[in-house]
Amino acid sequence: FPGRSQPIGMAQEFVNCKIQPGKVVVFIKPTFPFCRRTQEILSQLPIKQGLLEFVEITTTNHTNKIQDYLEQLTGARMGP
Fold first, then answer.
1. What is the C-alpha separation between 72 and 47, in angstroms, rounded?
2. Distance between CA 6 and CA 58 in Å, rounded?
């Protein structure tokens, strides 16, 4: 992405190691109401065990860098 600085390796590594083909990964901030609601809704769907993962990005010291990298990947700093 021209004009954007690349995130420090830790954030990029954190995100990339979670993303896998055939798996749904939702990066969340558990204190955000939309994230909690999305987690509740998706958890009720009949998705095969192990194919849906919720990753709390606030459990690291790199939350802002993770959000910057997610923005590069998806166009949005935060979802869900």
1. 28
2. 20
Both tokens assigned to 27 = 């990066």
Tokens read off for 58:
């606030």
Residue 45 corresponds to which tokens in the numbers above? 């769907």
- Beta carbons within 8 Å of 36's beta carbon, 6+ residues apart: 28, 30
Residues 6+ apart with CB under 8 A from 8: 62, 65
The whole-angstrom separation of Cα 47 and Cα 24 is 10
pLDDT in tens, 8-25: 588 899 999 999 999 999
66: number of Cβ within 10 Å: 22
pTM value? 0.79
The token pair that represents 79 in the structure block: 């979802």
Q: Which residue(s) pair with 4 in the sheet? A: none
Distance separating alpha carbons of residues 39 and 67, to the nearest angstrom: 18
